[in-house]
Amino acid sequence: MKAIVTYTDTFGGEANGAWVKRYEFNCNNNISTRAVVIRAKKLTGLTNYRSRSYDYGDSVTIRPTGRNEIITVDFE
Q: 0.85 exceeded by the pTM?
């Protein structure tokens, strides 16, 4: 399975898209949400930032605390 990571800015709490960075990585079908968050934050350079993550089954959203940015991870 492939995970596609999209890292962008926010405006009013929603993804803005003024700038976008995309990454991808391969993973197992049974990867945990925690493992996805760790890998996505490492790719985007936000490893040392606290964040809240939301698992929607087919995607994960990561919101770093105190930053106007958002990370979404979609699975193919």
A: yes
Neighbours of 13 (CB within 10 A): 9
Phi, psi values for residue 47, rounded to 5°: -55, -40
Q: Which positions ≥6 away from 14 have C-beta within 8 Å?
A: none
**Paired tokens of 26:** 């391969």
Give the residue carrying structure tokens 């492939």. Answer: 2
- The residue ranking higher by pLDDT, 29 or 23, is 23
Q: In sequence order, what E strands does 1-76 have? A: 2-11, 14-26, 51-55, 59-64, 69-75
Across the chain, mean pLDDT equals 95
List Cβ neighbours of 75 (8 Å cut-off, separation of 6 or more).
1, 2, 3, 4, 58, 59
